[in-house]
Every structure is written in structure tokens, then in C-alpha cells.
Amino acid sequence: MTRTVPPSSEPEAQTSTGPKDVAPAVALHTGTSDVRALLTSNLRQSGIYVAFVVIIGLFAVLTGGTSLSPGNVTNIVLQYSYILILAIGMVIVIIAGHIDLSVGSVVALTGATSAVLVIQQGMPWWVGVLAALAVGLAIGAWQGFWVAYVGIPAFIVTLAGMLLFRGLTLQVLDNISLSPFPQGYSRIASGFLNGLLGGNGYDAFTLLIGAIAVAGYAVSQYRSRIARIRYEQPVESFPLFVLKIVLVGAVVMAFAWQLATARGLPIVLIILAVLIIAYSVITTRTVFGRQVYAIGGNLAAATLSGVKVRAVNFWIFVNMGFLAAVAGVVFSSRSNGAQPSAGNMFELDAIAAAFIGGAAVTGGVGTVVGAMVGGLIMAVMSNGMQLMGVDQSIQSVVKGLVLLLAVAFDVYNKRRAGASR
Asked: Which purpose does this protein serve, as stated in its record (predicted)?
């Protein structure tokens, strides 16, 4: 009896996985149609950057270029830095499938702690900073315990925390505002590094930092490209890759020039940059980061894979408490005092930044860089509407619609991906 060989078996027998087939496989992904497919498959990630550029251009036209003036660019960095710091922690919480509604109250309480020690008690400014960070870590541990080890949903725990820590803020401040902070403390959010390398009408040090940032980005992207090629993953063509680096470099250097011709490099921007780099590495290149994504993507599979879900969830909230304390220090430094109403609605801004930046409602998806872009979109919109004299109520309507559309886009993408399988 003759055995019939399936037609698919012959190509399988001829297929080789040796090094000689790597180049053709990569070349297949560098054609025009494949690049288009690559960009389409990453529409949500690439679309947010396009939207960011469009929004910047729109408000530049509507404000007659005022929104891109050196002074205004510097003000955006100073005014919205604490929201971006909160967004770093919030996106990690959301990736894991949780939410934190208490961060605004934590900002208020940590700022109040610093104010009482530094302004009322006359302690050195750095003691206030350390005390605020300690309070933030304690709050994170408190909420992480209830979420991770007691099993109460994060929504309920942090909703209770929002009320609890706001009440404690009122108690700590005795329902009054405290100000001003000494110069060392206020320089955290309002100080600048300039004149270190001189410059005629501009700060050369700020331009040097911008150039280093561009070089670091180029090297990082090149190494990532080489790694993707090594594993036969799709990449854009080399001219398109170079164009992307050039465009990003031009944007960064234009931003650095605006800062250099204003007041120099803000200290708070250095703090923010360190946090962004550190948490980008943590979320993408550490075991803890992979476990966070695993928990948010499929909790049951993560548990069966040996992930210590309780411990990871606990440290997620400890980290959120720490970053909320950093934001509290920055905000109190920026406002040069502590108020009982400080941090009101900050949690909504941080959540909006994470979702607009690409985080998924169901968890498992999101990036630190995406959250930063989402936060900057909110910042540019708010700043632009303020320059145009738009009423506060209209600003809230616009922000709400942008958030709704971002989440709707996420839902649409998931449905389309599910239908295509």
C-alpha cells in the first residue's frame, strides 16, 4: 500500500533555519508593504506621537506662536512635572490591572509633612524631603497590604485612602496653609542649572545635555534594531529608521534650544528624566517589570507560571506611594507652601495621561514613555487653552472628550484584533 505524503510536508523538509536564511527573512520585512503593515500594527503606539505633534502645531497656530516661546515651554515643564511623575507610577499600576484614586491626597499629605517640619519646626529642607518620601513609602505599604494580602480591590482601598489621607492632611496642617519654604527647598521645582559652560544669549550646558540625550536615544534605538533583526522580527527600512532618529533629534534639540534661550535647564526636568529612564529600564528589562505585565495580561497564567502575585502587587503600590511623595515634594516646592486642598483631582490627570498614552483598561498594556506623551498632550492642551483664554469649564469638557476617545480607540483596536483572528 502506497502512503500519500501531504503537500505541506515537502516545503517543510526544504526549510532551513540556519544563518543563511536570516538575511532573506529580514529583507522580507523591510519592503514598502511590510513597513506599512508594521506601522499599521503599531497604530496606537505611533498614532499618539503623531497626535502629539499635531496638537503642538495646532496650538502654535491658534496662539500665534506664543505656546512655543522659550518662556512658555519652560513654564510647561515647571507646571506639569508633578503630573508626569504621578503618571509614571500610575501607568505601572494600570498595567497590573489596578487603579489608584488616592495619589492626589498623598501629594497633599507628603507636602504638608515637609511644610510642618521645615517651615514650622525650622528643620533643614532636606529633612522635609526625606520625611515626605518616608510617609509616601509608608502609605504605599499600607495600601499594598490591603490590596495584595487582604484581597480588597484597589479601587476600594485607594478610594478609602483618598478620604483618609485628605483628612490627615487637614489634621497635619490644622486647616491652614503654610509658607514659604526656604530657598533650598523651593529650588527643587523652581531652580535652574545655567551658566555652567557659558554661552552668548543661550545656555551651552542645556544644549550639551540635549545632544547627549539624542545620542543616547540613537544608540538605544540602533541596539534595539539589531536585536530585532537577530531574532528575525520585522523592522522598518534603514532610511526610515534614520529619518526617525533625525526627526526625534530635531525635536529634542529644538526643545533644548527653547530652554537654553530662556532660563536654562530646570532642575525638576533632571529629576523627571532620571525617573523616566529608570522606570523605562525597570518595566522593560527587569524580572519585576515582566511580572507586572504578566499579572495584568493574564493573572491566572502568571500565577501558574510561579509569579509571586501578592508580593508584586504589594511593591507596585509601595512604588506608587514613593512617586506620589516625589510629586508632593515637587508640587509643594513649586507652590512654595502647603495647602489643605493641594493635589485635588491630580489622580484623574495621572490616570488620563496613562490611558491617552496607550495603557489598556483591562491591563497588560502600556509604557512609561507613552504615559509621558499622554501627560504632555494634556499639558499642551491645558496650557494652550489657557493662553487662548478658554473658560475652565470648556477645558474640562475638552479633556474629558479626549480621554473618552482615547479609551474608545483602545476598545476599537482590541475588537478589530479579535475579529481578525
From this structure: Part of the binding-protein-dependent transport system for D-xylose. Probably responsible for the translocation of the substrate across the membrane.
